Amino acid sequence: MSAAPDPYPDHRPNAGMVLFNRRGEVWMGKRYAQGGPWVWQFPQGGLDPGEDPQAGALRELYEETGVTEDLAELIGEIPGWLAYDFPPEVLAQRRRNAWKGQKQRWFAYRYHGTDAAFDLKAVPPQEFESFRWVTLAESPALIIPWKRPVYEAVAKGFAHLARPVES
User: Fold this and answer.
1) What span, in angstroms and rounded, lies between the C-alpha atoms of 85 and 79?
2) What's the whole-number average pLDDT of the chain?
């Protein structure tokens, strides 16, 4: 039996992570040295060739936040790819690659550490300059509009996880 064809062959493979604290809130980082109203996002980034998406999500978590995988417990996954296209102005800036957009695999993790464990300068180049905890329902409104449908799908897919847990 052959694998199903890739529905997004022109999109860069990427992994994203929603990090839930014990209160059921989610971690969002403010993108480094960027202004404007939509500078917040979840940890996410490109997958290396052949890299397992879950391993890529954990790698991105460390690279972007300094949090090690021993502080994060897998609690959910959205099956399959979610994708967005880059708008024309972004495509114009990205002439050096042929990607039409990004396709992402999304994972949910429960965070077992404290805010002190975050080191946003752990791995250069720095991705985020600060962070905050928000409700999952708030997160799509904080992301740049052309990525918002993916964040809405992520919020819907992980809504059942957005609740406090006992210690």
Assistant:
1) 19
2) 94
Q: Which structural domain range is residue 37 located in?
A: 11-161
Identify which of 80, 85, 88 has the alpha carbon closest to the alpha carbon of residue 99: 85
Within its chain, how far is the Cα of 138 from the centroid?
Answer: 15
5 belongs to a structural domain: no
Which pTM was predicted? 0.93
Query: pLDDT tens digit string along 129-145?
Result: 999 999 999 999 999 99
156 lies in a domain?
A: yes
Instruction: Give the domain CATH number at 61.
Output: 3.90.79.10
Q: Which residues contact 55 (CB under 8 A, 6 or more apart)?
A: none
Tell me how many domains the chain contains: 1
Of the candidates 35, 38, 40, 42, the residue with the CA atom closest to the CA atom of residue 14: 42
Is 6 inside a domain boundary?
no
Q: What is the pLDDT of residue 97?
A: 73
Flag whether 1 is in a domain: no
Using alpha carbons, select from 56, 54, 39 the residue that is nearest to residue 127. Answer: 39
The tens digit of pLDDT for each residue in 42-91 reads 999 999 999 999 999 999 999 999 999 999 999 999 999 999 999 988 88
